[in-house]
Design a protein that fits this description.
Shape of chain B: elongated
Keywords (chain A): Carbohydrate metabolism, Cellulose degradation, Glycosidase, Hydrolase, Polysaccharide degradation, Signal
Distance between the termini of chain B: 35 Å
CATH topology of the domain at 146-261 in chain B: Serine Threonine Protein Phosphatase 5, Tetratricopeptide repeat
Strand order of the largest sheet of chain A: 6-7-8-9
GO molecular function (chain A): cellulase activity
Oligomer: heterodimer
Largest interface: A-B, 52 and 43 residues
Family (chain A): Belongs to the glycosyl hydrolase 8 (cellulase D) family.
Catalytic activity (chain A): Endohydrolysis of (1->4)-beta-D-glucosidic linkages in cellulose, lichenin and cereal beta-D-glucans
Helix content of chain B: 55-70%
Largest sheet of chain B: none
Radius of gyration of chain A: 19 Å
Number of strands of chain A: 11
Strand content of chain A: 5-15%
Enzyme class (chain A): hydrolase
Number of helices of chain A: 12
CATH class of the domain at 146-261 in chain B: Mainly Alpha
Radius of gyration of chain B: 35 Å
Number of helices of chain B: 31
Shape of chain A: globular
Number of strands of chain B: 0
């Protein structure tokens, strides 16, 4: 019911410790056409679905969204259309216009609930495709998805506009369970910029972005003041690490600094917690998860893609720490590879070395 | 019944309903000086980081004025479309590097909106607004002062949050990360840090923190309050050392440190008054007693006088008791003082005076009505200072009366048990059992006892159990409210009190209108219900409701100290700090306890924006 998607990753990244320790060079490669071809070869099936190799080969709305975004960035319209077609046929099976979040090779959709970040990534990719290829049909589809999202998962709570992680199952009394890493800031800004003739009340998306920054300032826990993967927001605006989930910073929340950077944010305040975690590791492997507020770390090291995010965060926090990002391994999984490419894109956007 | 609430109510800012406060003007203030826009992946625009470098010469011939316009007004979509259009015209064309650099030496960013948020305590909102401004204007740096203010305020919040949830090590970590957060101008946090060490049993470090405060913080009042705080954890020797340091170290001109010296004496007084009010604490020494009397008389402290009255009543020094109850009643008339006075006079055999003392409250206060029974019910053990109905002259009656006079409620149950081996239970006896069980905080059994009394009363001849029909009483009862309770009503009242104690508030509120009780009794139960509801509202942080419920209760009966404190904390949490502080101050002036001192100091701290 609740998409805790990184669970299966634990253990999968263990081999990276050796890679990181070997001291191989250096910064991640920029994202370019060659990088996209390699990505598509590894994770994109001919029918148009992105395979999460770290999670038993399932597909999900998030993966489709990332795939679509990378295809636009690489200018590969053929791949884009295959992914969009597959997404419509297989995931957009709900009456409310949202996307079912998980699909398994055996049996298809295995959880009809939506994952709001998946919907957001897809809508954003569609908008970008509409601009890039001058194709209004993509924009129309994006707007339909945004309207569905606004109805189902944008809610006013404690004086803020916030994002439910999925339509069902994230209200506990008057407390909401939120996922800070579902705030895909650059996407929210693109939505807010839509003219009212296309999207009624785009202002709500700007408010959502604002509330995201507020929640990231409120929701800081433990020694490093990291955001949790899952956050509880009470009716008075108070925040806590959510019960009922792993109380940690980890595979979800690592995307927080990535999205902020992609949106052009540079305030060191928002990057410092992640840079501190990297700095504390002293050049050794960075732990993949940190329990909150306790601070217990796992033996599992951050993947290459996560290291790329830390490198970005350290640069923006001006922490003085340089994170060495090993090259993507031959068997690098879908999530790590995606994070690595998005980090490269963010760095390129900000005009800093990837 | 409803509650001495010993815990502190949320002292952090948590109760505030913080509206989302990023003002549009903050975001739009710099629309004339737009900064770098991060583009979405794939659109490669290089951003010139140098501020104020002015427009760079365009190396090619394409007209980019529209592009610059879109960049300036922040219309990303159109800007991207324009970039695509220009690229189509010239595939070799690159967007200008200074697209987002302020084109003219525009005005600097006005920090006022951020400071407004900071001064409103909206630190996360301030952070968000600053980040957004930095995104729009990368060349802008917030002032060091603004960032320092935020860092310290957040550090202080973090420390308070950890302290409120008793995560003591986190308190210490937060202070280490942000030492400014525990400076003299944030005294409450400095106390919390010392408290964290004390709670972790690192008493030497706790002492060091307190010592730092009383030697470094200049205000005499603050040093004094610190010693009060420290007295909770430190030995008398350490407190004495702190007092000496606080009275002498680093004096500043214009501060009078004599009040620091007197702290030890006041602490002793507080302990004395506490001991006085505690029946289990035993008798005070002659010197202590004399001191307590002196202090109470000097302050005309009615609560203290009532405590003294009961102290003497327990010692069977009824004349002394009478004097103190009378003083209390003279300083601040109350049914509590009247109750004591009636019982003391009754014990002295001055029944007429006792009835007179009760007259103003008769029919209005169940407490007084109960006490008056000791002077109106004919069969009574002489000299009894006990409360409540008696069981008549059965064997064991004197033992029961003696137990009641001692406030010995276990003894009361034992006496009744013995009486029941000789005779059949009566309604009055069962009712008395109910009251004693209530005093022993066994409400479920009490409710059963009252129910049994109710059943017995229904079978007993009415006349034998109708109290207070003497001519003297009737002459006093000339007001409509002054209807004495029938035994049935008395039992119903007892059951209601017992149900209150078991927490059956909803059920009781539902049944109350149909219950056979006197208007006085109903009013008292209703007042208790309101107090219970106010306590629940407090737990749920519905502070407005707390005030509403307490106001409604105040219509029925005067507000006791514990509920006034509750009212104060509700005001505090609603940020009505001046009212909260004034109320706490009034309570503390009447009788200064650790609870009231803490309330005053926490509120004062908050008022000064810690």
């Amino acid at each position: 019911m609740t998409p805790t998607r990184r669970d299966l990753l634990i253990g999968g990244a263990a081999g990276l410790l050796a890679t990181a320790a070997a001291g191989l060079p250096l910064a991640a490669k920029p994202f370019d056409a060659a990088a996209w071809r390699e990505y598509a070869d590894r994770f994109l099936r001919p029918e148009g679905r992105i395979v999460d190799t770290g999670n038993n080969g399932v597909s999900h709305s998030e993966g489709q969204g990332y795939g679509l975004l990378l295809a636009v960035a690489a200018g590969d319209r053929g791949a884009f259309d295959r992914m969009w077609g597959w997404t419509q046929r297989n995931l957009m099976i709900r009456e409310d216009g949202l996307t079912a979040w998980r699909w398994q090779p055996e049996g298809g959709v295995s959880d009809r609930n939506n994952a709001s970040d998946g919907d957001i990534l897809i809508a954003w990719a569609l908008l970008r495709a509409a601009d890039q290829w001058k194709a209004d049909a993509y924009r129309t589809a994006a707007v339909a998805l945004l309207k569905a999202l606004a109805t189902a998962v944008l809610v006013e709570h404690a004086g803020m506009t916030v994002l439910l992680p999925g339509r069902d199952g994230f209200r506990k009394g008057d407390t909401l369970i939120l996922n800070p890493s579902y705030w895909v800031f650059p996407a929210l800004r693109a939505f807010a910029a839509l003219p009212t003739s296309l999207l009624p009340n785009p202002e709500r998306w700007r408010k959502l972005a604002e509330s995201g920054l507020v929640l990231l300032a409120k929701g800081r826990f433990g020694t490093h003041q990291l955001p949790p993967d899952w956050l509880a927001l009470d009716a008075n605006g108070g925040v806590a690490v959510a019960d009922g989930f792993r109380k940690q910073y980890g595979y979800d929340a690592v995307r927080v600094p990535l999205y902020l950077a992609m949106d052009g944010h540079r305030d060191p305040y928002y990057f410092r917690p992640f840079a501190m975690l990297a700095t504390q590791s002293g050049g050794g492997p960075i732990p993949a998860t940190v329990s909150l507020p306790g601070g217990t770390t796992t033996q599992v090291a951050a993947s290459v893609g996560m290291m790329a995010v830390y490198r970005l965060a350290c640069t923006l926090a001006a922490s003085g720490t340089t994170v060495t990002v090993p090259p993507l391994g031959a068997n690098e999984d879908y999530y790590s590879t995606t994070l690595a490419h998005l980090s490269a894109l963010a760095a390129q956007t900000l005009g800093i070395a990837p | 019944m409803t509650g001495s609430r010993n815990r502190r109510f949320g002292t952090a800012l948590v109760g505030l309903l913080v509206g989302f406060g990023l003002s549009p003007t903050a975001a739009e203030a710099t629309s004339t000086t737009p900064g770098a826009r991060a583009l979405v992946p794939g659109v490669k625009v290089e951003v010139a980081p140098a501020p104020g470098s002015g427009p760079a010469a365009t190396p090619n011939a394409l007209d980019d004025s529209a592009l610059r316009y879109y960049a300036r007004i922040g219309d990303v979509e159109r800007m991207e479309a324009e970039i695509a259009r220009l690229r189509a015209l010239d595939p070799g064309w690159e967007p200008p590097k200074d697209l987002f650099t302020p084109q003219a030496a525009g005005p600097g960013v006005d920090e006022t909106p951020f400071w407004s948020l900071v001064s409103a305590g909206k630190f996360p909102e301030a952070r968000a607004a600053i980040a957004e401004q930095r995104r729009q204007t990368p060349s802008w740096q917030p002032s060091a002062k603004l960032l320092q203010e935020l860092d310290v305020a957040e550090g202080a919040n973090r420390l308070r949050g950890a302290s409120d949830t008793k995560r003591w090590q986190d308190v210490i970590d937060a202070a280490a990360a942000q030492p400014e957060a525990v400076a003299c101008n944030r005294l409450d946090n400095a106390w919390r840090l010392a408290e964290a060490y004390a709670e972790l049993k690192q008493l030497d470090r706790a002492f060091d923190r307190y010592k730092t405060i009383v030697s470094q913080c200049p205000k005499a009042k603050e040093r004094r309050d610190t010693i009060f705080k420290a007295s909770r954890y430190l030995s008398p020797e350490q407190v004495r050392e702190l007092t000496t340091i606080g009275a002498t170290a680093n004096p500043v001109a214009g501060e009078d440190y004599t009040a620091v010296r007197t702290v030890e004496g006041e602490l002793e007084t507080g302990r004395l008054l506490e001991k006085l009010g505690n029946p289990k604490a035993g008798p005070l020494s002659t010197a202590d007693l004399a001191r307590a009397e002196q202090i109470i008389r000097d302050k005309q402290d009615a609560d203290g006088a009532i405590a003294l009255g009961w102290y003497f009543q327990r010692q069977k020094k009824h004349a002394d008791a009478q004097r103190w109850f009378a003083d209390a009643n003279g300083w601040t008339p109350s049914d509590k003082a009247a109750e004591g006075l009636i019982l003391a006079l009754a014990a002295l055999g001055k029944k007429a005076e006792a009835r007179e003392a009760g007259a103003p409250w008769q029919g209005k206060s169940n407490r007084v009505d109960q006490a008056l029974k000791s002077v109106t019910n004919p069969p009574r053990g002489s000299g009894s200072g006990g409360r409540g109905a008696s069981g008549g002259g059965a064997p064991g009656q004197s033992e029961l009366s003696a137990a009641l006079a001692r406030d010995d409620f276990a003894g009361c149950l034992a006496a009744i048990q013995r009486m029941l081996t000789h005779s059949r239970p009566t309604a009055a006896l069962m009712q008395q059992r109910g009251w004693c069980l209530m005093e022993l905080k066994r409400p479920t059994e009490a409710e059963a006892a009252f129910a049994e009394a109710q059943a017995l009363a229904a079978r007993e001849p009415a006349k034998a159990n109708t109290p207070g029909k003497s001519s003297s009483q009737r002459s006093l009862s000339d007001r409509p409210l002054d209807t004495p309770a029938s035994p049935a009503q008395e039992n119903a009242y007892g059951q209601a009190v017992a149900r209150l104690a078991t927490g059956d508030v909803a059920g009781l509120a539902r049944d109350l209108p149909r219950t056979n009780m006197t208007p006085t009794q109903k009013a008292e139960i209703r007042a208790s219900l309101l107090a219970t509801e106010a306590g629940r509202a407090m737990d749920d942080k519905r502070y407005g409701d707390v005030l509403r419920l307490l106001d409604a209760r105040k219509e029925l009966t005067p507000e006791p100290r514990n509920l006034s404190l509750l009212r104060g904390w509700a005001l505090y949490n609603m940020r009505r700090l001046d009212e909260a502080r004034a109320l706490f101050k009034a309570i503390d002036d009447r009788l200064s306890t650790e609870e009231s001192r803490e309330a005053v100091s926490v509120t004062s701290m908050a008022t000064y924006r810690y």
